[in-house]
Amino acid sequence: MHAQHHIGIDLGGSSVKASAVTRDGTLLESLNLPFVDRDMEWALRVEEAVESLRTKLGEPSGIGLSAPGLAAADERSIAFMPGRLDGLEGLDWTRRLGSSTPVPVLNDAHAALLGEAWIGAAAGVANTFMLTLGTGVGGAAIVDGRLLKGRLGRAGHLGHVSVDFLGPLDDVGTPGSVESEIGNKTLRKRCSGRHANTHALVAAVESGDLEARQIWERSVRALSAAVTSLINVLDPEVVIIGGGIARAGKTLFEPLATELERVEWRPGGHQVRIVPAQLGDLAGAYGSAVNSIRRQLPAVDGR
Q: How far, CA to CA in Å, does 86 sit from each of 65, 82, 161, 175?
């Protein structure tokens, strides 16, 4: 039995990911439980994951949870998540899971960056931000060792920065956002239906399709504009690029580096490192776990 471990839960759109980790970041167990978004099935999968890890490893020292939406000010629930996961808003996870210690709740992108800053691509870094490129574009930022949350928990929605003030409005009303330019949700419109998703577009680029390359290059230029703008605002040491689209590897990172060579402000020749995320699908679970650990050990890494 492992007395000193914490459970991190990441509630996604279609599955619950869970990790049990020690205070030094050693992974003891992990789970990935799919669900259908109806009748709060996702809450049952969260309970199942916690109970399974409790059975295998014993009572955890703490539990942390992340989910889409804006976390409540008291960090016991998600306060705002319209449109899906009906029942999530206002659900007190400390009570739901019968935990003897408070279960801190984070936005999922915030948690993913905490995980990467703990034992991933930005370990030991005090200034960083992350963009996750997927169906949409998520994000989060750590500045001077502290996760930016803002007044409403809205800070870090970096996918909604504008790169074209004349562009179409995105889901939150931002004109020409980087999410609209590179997110998978708009790909069929951007390519007039020629490609089913961004992975298909990238495959076409790699096969030498010139029209696909033009679409992709526009997306990468938009991403570079967002990255360089955010570098000017946040002054990071490292920028992390994650999400499914980041799996394009050099097809993404090489043209992005070329664009940043052209547009990034580099005082004294200082160049910000652009790196891929390391923790994959477990980043949010790791981040939720370390958020729980730091509630009990607030001096850990100063965060």
A: 17, 8, 28, 28
